[in-house]
Amino acid sequence: MFNTLSLREQVYQYLSHEIQAGELRPGASIRLDVLSKKLGISKTPLKEAILKLECEGFVEILPRRGIVVKKMTNQEIKDLYEIVGSLESTVVLSIFDQITGVHISKMKDLNEELLIALEGNEFDKYYQLNLDFHECFLNLSPNLTLRRYITPAKQRLYDFTRRQYLKEWELVNLEEHNKFIKCIEDGDREGAARVIKEEHWGWTVHEAHAVQFYELDTPSEDPD
């Protein structure tokens, strides 16, 4: 199994897949001695992979409890929404003039493919198409450092643990894609950035669905 990438990276991908597939659920313990024996490798690449997963927020190293798969909280997801929204909207503002008709056509096609995948319950395909939609404009940014922050944040949101999508929620997201495209067609730079930051990644807009999707605590009632 481990014969192409570095051993650490292969172990990292293996553990990431186990988390995505739900084989390692939130709260589950990861025992290095058991994994070392199962995979037939030393503990060194395992420890290196665990440190990377810890940095990305997938696992926790707890005193006297060892390594556990980290459970996502309302606050963490809210924070990630704010981070990704801020970063993506910043990209939109900076590269808006580089978006051409070709990019717009590609985003329209992807949004149609997203709807077809959603209606066909092709969730893995939907997952990739959604990433591809955002890459249409993110790839225009020369700021590789900024993009390196976006990728792990999205992985934390999308890959922990990979679930079947809520169709009613995704239909909202697809409509936001359409609003974003319309702003671009209208030459509305600020409007496009606003749709991305305040609607597409707006926590208050999506909190109710996110609570259901991520099996979080019920959102607090509005005191008003």
Label the CATH architecture of the largest domain: Up-down Bundle
CATH level-4 homologous superfamily of the largest domain: GntR ligand-binding domain-like
Helical fraction: 55-70%
Please, how many domains? 2
Structural class: mainly alpha
The CATH topology of the largest domain turns out to be Four Helix Bundle (Hemerythrin (Met), subunit A)
What composes the largest sheet? 3 strands, antiparallel
Nearest-integer average pLDDT = 88
Low-confidence stretches: 220-224
Radius of gyration: 19 Å
Q: Helix segment count?
A: 10
Query: Strands of the biggest beta sheet: in what spatial order?
Result: 1-3-2
Question: What fraction of the residues are assigned to beta strands by DSSP?
Answer: under 5%
CATH domain class name of the largest domain: Mainly Alpha
User: What is the number of E strands?
Assistant: 3
